[in-house]
Each structure stands twice: as C-alpha cells, then as structure tokens.
Design a protein that fits this description.
By secondary structure, this protein is α+β, with helices and mostly antiparallel strands. The chain has 3 helices and 3 strands. It has a single domain, classed as Irregular (Factor Xa Inhibitor). A 3-stranded antiparallel β-sheet has the order 1-2-3.
Length: 66
C-alpha cells in the first residue's frame, strides 16, 4: 500500500505537540494593528490549542502526526 498524502494546507497551519495536542496560530494579527491594545497584540502572537471537538478532524488531515 502506498504512503498516504497529508493535506498540505493543514500541515502549514497546525503542529502536534509531544503530548498529542494540536497547536494553532491565532487570528487577527495581520493588519489594522493600530487600534488594538499592546497586550492584545502580544497575546495574539502566542500559539493556542485547538478545541477538543476539532482536534480529531485535524489529526485526520495530518495523518502521520502521532
């Protein structure tokens, strides 16, 4: 059986941690930054976790991320 291809868009957006959780980037950090508070921009820069409900479907897109 050949290797399965993972969805490249998902590979670029998500990472699997060592414990199996899925990391994602936060939205609203690309433009119109002048009206956003400094603390808000700082928090948007950090990565967040995907919710439990979405985690299973994203892991299916990544295939080999154990």
């Amino acid at each position: 059986m050949p290797k399965l291809k993972s969805k490249r868009a998902a590979v670029k957006r998500f990472k699997i941690t060592g414990t199996g959780k899925v990391l994602r980037r936060k939205a609203n950090r690309s433009h119109i930054l002048t009206k956003k508070a400094k603390s808000r921009k700082r928090n948007l820069g950090t990565s967040g976790l995907v919710s439990k409900g979405e985690e299973r479907s994203i892991k299916r897109l990544l295939l080999y991320g154990k």
